[in-house]
Design a protein that fits this description.
- By secondary structure, the protein is of the alpha+beta class.
- It has 3 helices and 3 strands.
- It is globular.
- The two termini are 21 Å apart.
């Protein structure tokens, strides 16, 4: 599983949602997790803070982004 290296390896779930919205994703539904889609890809973001670095790496990979692209969106 890829790991998301970043500032203290911590990303707030709201910042992750905002970054993915900049990348063209929109919220499909919310509950214990936030489900987002860009029409071709579906990503699930847990609603807790901070998101684990390994989990965040998987989300970034599922979104089709590189770690550097995602960091630029944060």
């Amino acid at each position: 599983m890829p790991k998301f290296p970043g500032v203290n390896h911590r990303v707030n779930h709201l910042r992750a949602v905002a970054a993915l919205e900049k990348a063209g994703f929109s919220i499909i539904r919310q509950g214990g997790h936030i489900i987002m889609s860009n029409g071709a890809r579906l990503v699930t973001i847990p609603r807790h803070n901070p998101i684990n670095a390994i989990t965040m790496g998987g989300i970034v990979r599922d979104a089709g982004l590189t770690n550097d692209e995602f960091k630029a969106l944060l």
